[in-house]
Amino acid sequence: MYVWMFPNGEAEKRKSIVMPTPTQLSSARLLPDTTTASQDGVMHIAGYSLIDLAQRHGTPLYIFDRATIINACQRYRKAFHDTYHASPVRIIYAAKAYLSPLIAQIMAEQGMGLDVVSGGELAVAHHAGFPMENVSFHGNNKTEDELHLALQLGVGRIVLDNWSELERLMRVAQETKKRPRVLLRVAPDVETDTHRYLQTGHAASKFGFPLSNGEAKVAIQAVLRSEHLQLIGLHAHTGTMLRETRPYEECLERLLDLAAEIYEEAGWWPEEISPGGGWGIETVDGADVPGVDVLAQALQKVMERSGADRAALPVPTLIIEPGRSIIARAGVALYRVGARKPTPGGITYLFVDGGMADNIRPALYGARYTALPVEQRATPEEEVCISGRYCESGDMLVERVVLPEMQDGDLLLLPTAGAYCLPMASNYNLVPRPAVILIDEQQVWQMERRETYTDLLMRYSEE
Ligand SMILES: Cc1ncc(COP(=O)(O)O)c(C=O)c1O
């Protein structure tokens, strides 16, 4: 459900509810599934008043709705189960979007795999008891220590990104007498219609062995010659915030063509193949994002075509790696307004108690958010810039939004803050990081405790 829902759904009660403003309604497709408004116009998630949560846990507060995460996992599973029949499918959550031990546990319960990109993410997955055979270790510069840790923990797959990594992994595998299962990451030279910083599959990408100059093929042959590595598949990821299936289709076609060439020359055929993750989400610009069933259908067609060409060969298991489309809408950031500042230059700022250190995305690549008041009020509306507390003019969470006039102490909510905000959070200006909670109708879990000055001072202490 992407609409505002009302407690108990009783029509009579609805009549007396202060209705959301049009701005709020249009934002409703950005909110967690369990978002409701109480009769007095206070926003609730999973039945909890956001005013109460802010009072109990402080602000800034990141809130994740468990039901929305589970619904998103199930939507993926259902779409691929109902629509994709060409081969088995594995859906792997891209932990870089947001990871904590509790999130890893939800992913395990939902039968998802986990894509990690560092020893830290690996350690969290291990700590959470996530089944290591369902972990894929990605990244473009894995250290020798990280590779040792991955082999020691028994991760299911290592995705090789470049020649240095290939040599490093061969060395580590030889030393440890392990023979890891690897996929080779290919830069498939597929253009995507997304921000430059979110493109990853073009010829000049920092990620993967280039396809266009033949390097990917040479690398596959090198892995096949190694007695220390088992090559089980090919991987690519073209970009993120994608709203069309074309890059996935082109990418999968190119990987299958590459595999066919290798099969002709060396008799090797992939068990697994992945066009990566990157499916988009609804954003404030209102552009439509098709459901994941559209993606499943498109990939089914590509696999069917390729299967018809190569009938004697088994269709490889398809691996999909969504991050943002699983977690973004489940998370909201709750801030308290600290000041309202009109300027002679025409901009009225609302300063909140967080900002670029907990959400760098607007400053980093112009990500657009909106903001909503937690309490609906019949005050006049005004256009404001939601700016953070950090010492940078670029510290703007929302450059322009029309809101009812807000006072110091009012609460503001930033929807779709579940992906790529906290994982990129910093301690800029030595401000402690926010608290993070996970909620469902029965329980509130503290997912990350609010940092303290003692935490900050720890880094200056001698070991
Ligand atoms: C290899 C790989 N897989 C999956 C993802 C997840 O992308 P998204 O969160 O947009 O689905 C990324 C994101 O950068 C990635 O690099």
List the helices and strands and how they pair.
Blueprint lengths: L10 H6 L5 H6 L7 E3 L5 E3 L2 E2 H8 L3 E5 H18 L5 E6 L6 H9 L3 E4 L2 H9 L7 E3 L6 H10 L3 E4 L2 H14 L4 E7 L21 E2 L4 H11 L4 E6 L10 H21 L5 E5 L15 H18 L7 E4 L3 H4 L3 E12 L5 E5 L8 H5 L6 E2 L7 E7 L8 E9 L6 E4 L20 E5 L4 E5 L4 H6 L5
Bound molecules: pyridoxal-5'-phosphate.
Number of domains: 2
Structural class: alpha/beta
CATH architecture of the largest domain: Alpha-Beta Barrel
Q: How widely separated are the two ends?
A: 50 Å
Percent helix, as a range, is: 25-40%
CATH superfamily of the largest domain: Alanine racemase
Task: Tell me, rounded to a whole number, the average pLDDT.
Answer: 91
Beta-strand portion reads 15-25%
Instruction: Examine the coordinates and then state which fold CATH places here, giving the name of the CATH topology of the largest domain.
Output: TIM Barrel
Note the quaternary state here: single chain
Globally, the shape reads globular
Low-confidence stretches: 1-19
Rounded to the nearest angstrom, the radius of gyration is 24 Å
Main sheet characteristics: 9 strands, mixed
For this entry, give a set of tags.
9-stranded mixed beta sheet, TIM Barrel, 2 domains, globular, 14 helices, 463 residues, disordered N terminus, binds pyridoxal-5'-phosphate, alpha/beta
Structure explained in plain terms:
- It is a single chain.
- With 463 residues, the protein is an alpha/beta fold.
- Helix content is 31%, strand content 22%.
- The longest helix has 21 residues, at 246-266.
- It binds pyridoxal-5'-phosphate.
- The site of pyridoxal-5'-phosphate has 17 residues, from helix 12.
